[in-house]
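Regression test case RT-17, inverse folding.

Input:
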């Protein structure tokens, strides 16, 4: 399997190369220290897997991920990050990352991630699996339920939601009951916390 490494920290990148090249089925075909050089390398080498740093100066790893997925949808991309932020995870998965691995993870976990995405599967660090489950739960909501959830989290009362969405208060109550059941939320505090952590409270859905 052909792998490209893109990370602005040379020492860290050399460590990744040594780690991955110790595996008989992995060949590091090239490296880059920034996104601009990274896309040139990817265009030239047509790798199977790209291991990409999330936080780089200039064009970020996240932006490069979007470019790669647009130009080379067949390339599998693992995003490396030191952040456990739910917003980072959400952006990564929504942008098409095939894997999200924390820089704090073990070397074996990174090797496993490379092999997993190469097989066409998706993988995220075990420490952020609970965050993925939250986003999976969010996907179960209807568009209207997401609107109601966002508005409740932003302080709207039922009557205000009713007027804003041009639906009855009874319908608002129904949506509220349904979304709380689906997400296993129990009160207003839970709703606000969920909306904030998933980024829904800032959404225009």
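Golden output:
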């Amino acid at each position: 399997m052909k792998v490209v490494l893109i990370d602005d920290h040379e020492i860290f990148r050399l460590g990744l190369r040594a780690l991955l090249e110790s595996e008989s089925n992995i060949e590091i075909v090239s490296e880059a220290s920034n996104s601009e050089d990274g896309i040139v390398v990817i265009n030239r080498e047509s790798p199977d897997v790209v291991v990409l740093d999330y936080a780089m100066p200039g064009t970020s790893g996240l932006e490069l991920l979007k470019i790669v997925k647009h130009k080379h949808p067949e390339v599998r991309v693992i995003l490396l990050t030191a952040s456990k932020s739910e917003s980072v995870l959400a952006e990564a998965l929504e942008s098409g990352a095939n894997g999200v691995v924390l820089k704090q993870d073990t070397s074996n976990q990174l090797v496993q991630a490379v092999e997993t995405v190469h097989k066409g599967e998706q993988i995220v660090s075990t420490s952020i699996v609970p965050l993925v489950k939250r986003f999976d739960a969010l996907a179960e909501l209807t568009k209207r339920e997401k609107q109601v959830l966002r508005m409740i989290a932003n302080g709207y009362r039922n009557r205000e939601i009713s007027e804003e969405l041009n639906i009855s208060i009874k319908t608002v109550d129904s949506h509220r009951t349904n979304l709380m059941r689906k997400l296993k939320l129990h009160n207003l505090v839970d709703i606000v916390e969920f909306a904030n952590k998933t980024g829904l409270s800032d959404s225009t859905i």
